[in-house]
Specification:
- The structure is a homodimer.
- By secondary structure, chain A is α+β, with helices and mostly antiparallel strands.
- Chain A folds into two domains: 131 residues, Nucleoside Triphosphate Pyrophosphohydrolase, CATH 3.90.79; 72 residues, Winged helix-like DNA-binding domain superfamily/Winged helix DNA-binding domain (Arc Repressor Mutant, subunit A, Orthogonal Bundle).
- The first copy, chain A, contains six helices and ten strands; from the N terminus they run αββββαββαβαβααββ.
- In chain A, the strands form two sheets. In chain A, strands 1, 2, 3, 4, 5, 6 and 7 form a seven-stranded mixed β-sheet that branches. The first copy, chain A, has a three-stranded antiparallel β-sheet with strand order 8-10-9.
- In chain A, a hairpin with an 8-residue loop joins strand 5 and strand 6.
- The longest helix of chain A has 18 residues.
- The structure holds a DNA duplex.
Chain lengths: 237, 237
DNA sequence: ACATATAGTGTCTTATAGTCACTATAATGC
DNA sequence: GCATTATAGTGACTATAAGACACTATATGT
């Protein structure tokens, strides 16, 4: 049989295939804490429980998985996040009561203010503080996905400035250091922190400053691809 | 409606779902070169082209995705690899002529000798040198998956000894250094290389030695979880 | 003006990688 | 046997980047 004939005769529904969903662990940083966006499930299974934003791939609307996850995040926040990265794919027969299911989970970062308006218009979406999250029961294996997402972001805090994407467009170095400190759960040397960022030329000085208390701090914004930069040496844990 | 009633009424086939496959980029190191295992496709589409070992999830036989990939690798090599890690999930409407498809791709490492017998009994499986692989046309997006796998392994060579899993159970330090050098495409300082491994106590001295030419080299084997160790500083690129 | 708070720097120390010459131990050839 | 060659492994100094911490700079509040 030719390939053409094979493809004409082929019907995907002849095979059983797992359910395929996409989820996003979307982090932000606000009021000194790392937060994750959760959504209240409107339907069975696990109706009423909180879960990650996500859902089924729409084979008509979505060209690829990334489009699916961006569509899902936009539905809840109103905007596309500036940082998105594949986190893990979970697939087994037990994670969803409806049967064998696969979820492709992404991690995304966004500033709090950027999507504040969008989130306030969506009744069922809410930021949850990472600390204490283990006390509430989430749908499916989403608790585990968040754990993996936090661990990944923590690792990145050691050798990159990816956590900067949890901040607004413009931010100060002390703010960024604070995010890293919260992620790593310990104080960092400001000299070391500043020095490596300066040497790698990762940030653009906006020329602006911001004063809260004390001396004003310089406002920076991320240079293009600064999220891809890996320092040759980690901050010590 | 109760959740119980919902689940009883639920039929996964009511939804369209993408095809779900699992693939493995299996590397080994032999005769001074990094190799990847490829399989010749017996069926449409892309019949006759080489591709990664992998295939559909068997929802009856497989409890989870990792079982699927291990089953598929065992079919071609006869053994389960000592190192396996999720690499990336590719999902879009174009990668497979049969329609919207998702592949969960793993990367795995194994010693050449360990599976030599298994591979020789499988007619359609063969090791390919990474160098020059870009000249042959692979099925689906498997060329891209291999590229991502090589890049990931190259990164790991900078801050871990994960590449050791491409070697036999027992190996010498110069052998391991050579793997890293091939991955990074440049010579490394043996003093630096040895020192960091010794300091982190990652290998077990087997007490045995091996002589090829010159002074005999000590044979080591990996300590448990040595693959998880991350050096605080990278080798310089 | 001074106290307080926070931003940012100077400089020494420490940890770890790079360099490279040196020693150690095998096989080989005369 | 002994020199030669090849490869394994070490010693010791240098270079780089992080840690520590005191010091300066520049705001606000009284």
């Amino acid at each position: 049989m030719s390939e053409k004939a094979f493809l004409e005769a082929y019907n995907p529904k002849d095979h059983d295939s797992p359910l395929v969903t996409v989820d996003a662990v979307l982090f932000t940083f606000h009021e000194g804490a790392l937060k994750v966006l959760l959504v209240e499930r409107a339907n069975h299974p696990d109706r009423g429980k909180w879960c990650l934003p996500g859902g089924f791939v729409d084979m008509q609307a979505d060209e690829n998985l990334e489009e699916t996850v961006i569509r899902k995040v936009k539905e809840k926040t109103g905007v596309a996040p500036p940082y998105i990265d594949q986190l893990a794919t979970m697939g087994n027969s037990k994670r969803d009561k409806r049967g064998w299911s696969v979820t492709v989970c992404y991690t995304a970062l966004i500033g709090y203010q950027v999507c504040e308006a969008g989130i306030s218009t969506v009744q069922d979406a809410q930021w949850f503080d990472i600390a204490g999250l283990d006390r509430i029961s989430l749908a499916f294996d989403h608790q585990e996905l968040i754990r993996i997402g936090v661990e990944r972001l923590r690792q990145k805090a050691l050798y990159s400035i990816v956590p900067a994407y949890t901040l607004p467009d413009k931010f100060t170095l002390p703010e960024l250091q604070h995010v890293h400190e919260v992620l790593l759960g310990k104080p960092l040397q400001k000299k070391s922190f500043r020095r490596r960022i300066e040497q790698a030329d990762l940030l653009i000085d906006t020329g602006q400053q911001r004063t809260e208390r004390g001396r004003p701090a310089t406002l920076y914004r991320m240079r293009k691809h600064s999220g891809d930069h890996r320092f040759v040496a980690n901050l010590r844990e």
